[in-house]
């Protein structure tokens, strides 16, 4: 791997914090809507099912655009695509701030989903612009922004809902988005790296979009529409069929959107599988913790806390993910990203195993959720490093975009599983039906199993793809990529 040509001057010192800010914005846009959902039906005149599309549409657009914009970044310039994604996200925020029409709001939230492409694009930019010995720590910090954005977004939205009109929240995100786009355009240099030549695979992009929307729509809305209805399995099966057609197209086209031959190599495929499993485990922590803390005291286990208190309980976990980023970089430098991924997944599995038996007191819940974030910080920092080490430099944005896509699919699957478990394993308290404590224990057990599967997958990644310290080879650019100076 050729060594990066570092940028010079004052702006080069701002590259990492600027990209990290963009990553925080991405997570912020995905989470700020959650505390608003109970009030939006009355404010918009729409049904709760229709309002829920404000969450679903962001997930769908983000998942679809990750590999597409990643490929576009490799071909047309990563700074250009990254800034464009931030601008579209900002336009979506402004539209949300200006209207209460549910149709426009759903469309605007789809525009906000473009921010999901920021993380893979930023990761690729870091590889292009930083000297190799700084890439590992910078990528680790970039990955940790997912946690801090989610942790900050929930209490921010809760505070706004309590003290102001909800439109004010989107004016805040509009200002943050405009600042992020402007500072990114000013700070991020136009890469001198050669771009991937050829034509953009429009047919492949359309097929991938159609297939992913079908699969993710079935996963996301199955609980609302009913798993026994013909619509859900029909849409899901159609999505899978289209993805199979897309895969055949990718194998035949000269310049594919995603190089499936490269993606099928164990060094690339296994990190993607681990990303799917850890995406499930990460999202279970967020979903279950908030609902567990807000459950009524009459259930015998719930704390009856407000949405603000519940969201603040996740803040230590978000801060922990940031604090773990340099630890992850040092661990990857010493033992390799493969070992970091394995260790992080085992920490998550252990944390959930403990949570199965300690979910009845606030401090235990917060401690368990934070310990899950410790493992997630290690995993999310190691995954992009493994992908960067396994793919050519001209395909880094597309490959990391696919890795983030797998995390998103894991989150969508988790959302469905959690909803099913919490609505079927129930009990009666105070004259109302609520999820039982056993339901949460089942969720934690499933999340522990997913994390354990990620650890097993990580251990199966070939050592030749891992850090040279694991293979006994001498220092190299890959060792520098992991964070060794």
Word description of this protein:
This protein is mainly alpha-helical. Helix content is 75%, strand content 2%. It has 2 domains: 416 residues, Growth Hormone, Chain: A (Up-down Bundle), CATH 1.20.1250.20; 56 residues. It has a two-stranded antiparallel ribbon. Helix 2 runs antiparallel to helix 8, helix 2 runs parallel beside helix 9 and helix 2 runs antiparallel to helix 10. It is globular, with a radius of gyration of 21 Å.
Brief sketch in words of this structure:
The chain is an all-alpha fold and 485 residues long. 75% of the residues lie in helices and 2% in strands.
Radius of gyration: 21 Å
Estimate the mean pLDDT confidence: 84
Instruction: Indicate the structural class.
Output: mainly alpha
Low-confidence stretches: 1-7, 465-480
Envelope shape: globular
* Strand percent estimate: under 5%
Helix content: over 70%
* SSE arrangement, N to C: HHHHHHHHHHHHHHHHHHHEEHHH
CATH topology of the largest domain: Growth Hormone, Chain: A
Strand order of the largest sheet: 1-2
CATH class of the largest domain: Mainly Alpha
What are the salient characteristics of this protein?
single chain; 485 residues; 2 domains; two-stranded antiparallel ribbon; disordered N terminus
What layout of secondary structure does this protein have?
Elements: H1 10-13, H2 15-31, H3 40-44, H4 48-51, H5 53-76, H6 78-98, H7 102-112, H8 118-129, H9 132-163, H10 167-187, H11 202-225, H12 231-252, H13 260-263, H14 266-294, H15 307-312, H16 315-335, H17 337-355, H18 362-390, H19 396-424, E1 426-429, E2 432-435, H20 437-459, H21 468-471, H22 477-481
Antiparallel strand pairs: 1-2
Helix pairs in contact: 2-8, 2-9, 2-10, 5-6, 5-7, 5-11, 5-19, 6-7, 6-8, 6-10, 8-9, 8-19, 9-16, 9-18, 11-12, 11-19, 14-18, 14-19, 14-20, 16-17, 16-18, 17-18, 17-20, 18-19, 19-20
